[in-house]
Write a structure and sequence with these properties.
mainly alpha; extended
Length: 99
């Protein structure tokens, strides 16, 4: 049989203290007014009223706004031949006066 050797005490190195900036300071909590207590709200059926949401996306927009948005999307998706596409880009004023 093999005899086990006695366990030796391992003396470890001491860990360096963290730098002063890394130490977190304990901040005191602000005193809350006991008259105003926070209560959780339940938005289930028949419970609290839900907060209002931005519903502008679901509005029936006027026709001219819908048309200009659809036109913009179509122009991005469709390939327009260069001779026709040149009329989509106007010339700025200084260049126009030179021509």
């Amino acid at each position: 049989m093999v005899q086990k050797k006695g366990k030796k005490k391992v003396v470890g190195k001491k860990v360096a203290a963290p730098p002063a900036l890394a130490v977190k300071k304990t901040e005191q909590k602000k005193k809350q007014n006991p008259l105003f207590e926070k209560r959780t709200r339940n938005f289930g059926i028949g419970q609290d009223i839900q907060p209002t949401r931005d519903l502008s996306r679901f509005v029936k927009w006027p026709r001219y706004i819908r048309v200009q948005r659809q036109k913009r999307v179509l122009q991005e998706r469709l390939k327009v031949p260069p001779p026709i596409n040149q009329f989509n880009h106007t010339v700025d004023r200084p260049t126009g006066t030179q021509v």
